[in-house]
Amino acid sequence: MNSSALTNALQQLTSLAEQAEGASPRNLTSVSTSGFAGELQASLQRINQLQQTATSQSNAFQAGSAAVSLSDVMADSQKASIAFQMGVQVRNRLLTAYKDVMSMQV
Questions:
Q1: How confident is the model at residue 5 (pLDDT cuts 50, 70, 90)?
Q2: pTM here?
Q3: C-alpha distances out from residue 70 to 15, 58, 84, 106, Å
Q4: How far is CA 105 from CA 3, 99, 101, in A?
Q5: Which GO terms fall under biological process for this protein (predicted)?
Q6: What tens digit of pLDDT does each residue of 7-37 get?
C-alpha cells in the first residue's frame, strides 16, 4: 500500500468520524459517494430503517392492531437485531483496521 492510498483512507475515516459527531466535514478531497463511504452510509441507513420498522410493528402490535401479527413483529425484530449486530461487527473491524494503519511506521 502506498502513501497516497493510506492518506486517502485516513481522510475518508476522518470525514466519517466528523460526520458521526455532527460536525461538518472538511473538504480534504472530493470523495466519491459511490465508493466505500457511500456503501457504508447506505448500510447504516438500512439498519436504521429496519430498526424503525421493528419498533413501529411492535408498537402497533402492543396497541392491539389486527393488521400486525406476532410472527411479523418477531421476524422484524430479529432482522433489526441481526442487522445491528452486523453493523457493530463492521464498526469493530473498521476500528481495528484504522488502529493498524495508525500504528504503521512510515
A1: low
A2: 0.62
A3: 41, 9, 21, 56
A4: 11, 12, 9
A5: bacterial-type flagellum-dependent cell motility
A6: 777 777 777 777 766 644 454 444 455 788 8
φ/ψ of 63, rounded to 5, equals: -80, -10
53 by Cβ neighbours in 10 Å (0-12 / 13-18 / 19+) ranks as middle
CB count within 10 Å of CB 28 equals 13
Concatenating the DSSP letter of every residue in 20-62 gives HHTPPPP-SS---TTSHHHHHHHHHHHHHHHHHHHHHHHHHHH
Nearest Cα to Cα of residue 78 among 106, 103, 95, 57: 57
How far from each other are the two terminal CA atoms of the chain, in whole angstroms? 11
> At residue 86, what is the residue type?
M
